[in-house]
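Support request, please re-run this one:
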Amino acid sequence: MGFLEITRKDLTLLVRDRRALVVLLLLPMAFICILGLSTGRLLGWRNDNQLLKLGVVDNCESHHSDLIFSRMQAIDGIKTVRVATLAEAEERLNDRDITAAVVIGKQFESTVATLNPQDIFDVSEARMKISLKDVDIQILSRPAAAMVHSVVDQLVLFCTLQAVLPDAARRSTVPSKVADLLMGNSSSEATEPRSTDELTTTTDANSTTPVDSENKTATTEVAEAGREAEPANPVYQTLVPAYTVMFAFFLVPIMGRSFIAERELGTLRRLRIAPISAIDLVLGKTIPFLVISLAQSAALFLFGRLLFGMSWGSQPWLLFPIVACTSLSATGMGLLIATLVRTDSQVSAYANFLVITMAGISGCFMPREWLPEVMQTISLGTPHAWSLIAYHEALTSQTPNISTIARSCGVLSVYAAGLATLGCWKMSGSRD
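Re-run finished. Output below.
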């Protein structure tokens, strides 16, 4: 009997073990699905909790205030709704129905109607002179959301400048090229000299100029095109490999229980006295789990691609060595632990504790970038961390650093060889 016969036998037993298959295949898929739903992305569905929800109280109801609302609405990642009154906005803020409220005052139009570019920009200091308060716009947010308040303030100011700068440029006496730039006029006619009368011509504040219409339409079209071509949620570039790595090492307790069952049935002792070499025995007992691990990783990445639309990176072939080295490392650790444990309770106490602890230390539960620097350094003592580093480089970089991936795969190979060697040595000294 060679190792192929042992491999075939153990593979048959593993396929029949539904509990093992659930842990290795269905459980990680369930985890990814649950977290995918919590982040608001499943089969293209997007949850409102991913959007910045802004309520707009428009007390002015002018052309420029409508333009501000349209520009905010065109920005991806923002859900803008009209709110009738200030009291309603405060109530929706307290109910957490909106993230922040933008209150456009009654004096807004009369304020911006007299603005010139010189009133907006301080050329000598290279900064803006005005703030939202100067144009009668107020931002409301919950007291605990100071960061959100600051972000919304800058966002609304940007949209306000987009809305009022073209008309301000027409009223100004700045050079024609600067005025054309502010109005977004990039045609050949924009480079021709213009008279002072043309530059100082004012327009009715409540009328829509052709330039404004074109800019507004262009902005909306670009935003809609961006939404249609929106890439997959980048969370899956971290989520799928993290759970793939974590559950790859769930082979450790399963291998431990497999060896315990062999000991209790006496088949392991009979295999050791059979006319087969120790290498055949080790290969026959570990290859089935290696095959299962490779199949598990392939299934999870395929699952992530089909269900979540995750990217396999700019060079998908880089995933093959990472998957292979990770599976080899997990199988080597499983072989060592299987030779150390003697009872099912030891598997539950030691193997599961080891697997879960190493997953937490390495960054499987949260992105490694979120870990403190000390923890990131400590995590390099686990094979999980090196696998995550390689996956991160292959999946998130436009031009993956091959040397980083090669170094990570090399460390994983060293882990696999060292753990497998210790496991073989322990098995050879065992009397089971």
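The longest helix spans residues 278-308. Strands lie at 41-42, 45-46, 52-58, 78-82, 100-104, 121-122, 127-128, 137-141.
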